[in-house]
Amino acid sequence: MTPYTQTMKRLTLALALLTLAATATAKEAVPFIENDYATALSKAKAKNLPIFVETWAPW
Amino acid sequence: MRAFVFTDKALERYAGRFVWLAVDTENAKNAAFLTKYPIPALPTLLVLDPRQESVALRYVGGATLPQLTKLLDDGERAFRGRSSSSADTLLASADKLAGAGKNDEAVKLYAQALAKAPKKWKPYNRAAESYAVTLSLAGNSSECASAARDLYPRLKGTPSGANVAATGLDCALSMEKKDPALITTLEKAARESFDDPKVAAAMSGDDRSGLYIVLISAREEAKDEPGAKQLQQEWSSFLDAEAAKAATPEGRSVYDSHRLSAYLELGTPEKAIPMLEQSERDFPDDYNPPARLALAYKTMKKYDEALAASDRALKHVYGPRKLNVLRARAEIYAEKGDKESARKTISEALAYAKSLPAGQRSERTIAALEKRLATM
Known about the structure:
Low-confidence stretches of chain A: 12-25
Mean pLDDT of chain A: 71
Number of strands of chain B: 3
Oligomer: heterodimer
Helix content of chain A: 25-40%
Shape of chain B: globular
Number of helices of chain B: 19
């Protein structure tokens, strides 16, 4: 978790927001569905599984 | 997390237990999702219950592998309804409210969950972090700072303790009427966590960088210039060392934005150039390296190089981030003395801001752009 106000003040300078995120996707150990909530939702309902969501942005 | 955590084979045992969704908040396709589940900061991690389309667990911030597996276990338990105590139920309700953007209501339930926590309650640390951060997001800096002070002793010696101290100190520094005693206590707590090697080893690089940032701000608040400068230098060296340790270009480039900030603060923007040029070569489709180069060149007053880099960034940027690139471009023109182009660029940004769909459209940004335009 990040201390927001001071971080915002400093890092908006560098066009970054709150935290470090990768610019490109390396090989993932779990099968992510990209940007498709509807598909994730119907799959989760069918299998009775929870949905794990990572929200991110390219920066 | 994409570069370091989600690539870890240890997560494979969770693969079939969740449906995994990655949401790029800049992508217009996700506007409806973002309206339904407001995201206060990135990354935010969610576990959703598809039956009710509600939030079963929410964590604002990045996580290391051990932190993530704990969140997954907790999220699965919340989804399966295996809440064994009233504190579990309260925490799940608090996460659900926070996940719907109802921070004021959520903080009350986080407080109740913590008050009713049984001894050795597993989610205590996460609940404490979410309580402090939700108070901060609700704009209640004073309560956030005092809650952090009261919660810290039980969390001492853990990454959650460091995060709560940092969030509390951040709140204390943002209070309209500053409370010097509260700042001192929280700065001491944050510093103690910072100096604890066990805590440092368990923290993610971004949380550690966040700790540096808030400690630098505290030294500035205390008008301790040499102290602030020394921490800035340590912060910069820490980031350089972390980047040097990275095994892949992805791992290295995650530090670019923090390193650039540190170089700018230390008055050495030229140090950012080789690093950003390397990232631009490694990720030719990513707008970030040229956008950051534009900023570094602008600080160095090399306006033509800055504009050329900005051109390259504009070719690749999309979504609300395009506004950042356009605003930075306008400032390059303004500093260069080209008022007409500066004005034109802000007008272009304003039109683009108004064209964004709900969930990505920000009235605050539109107002800020209109205000800037009025001064030009």
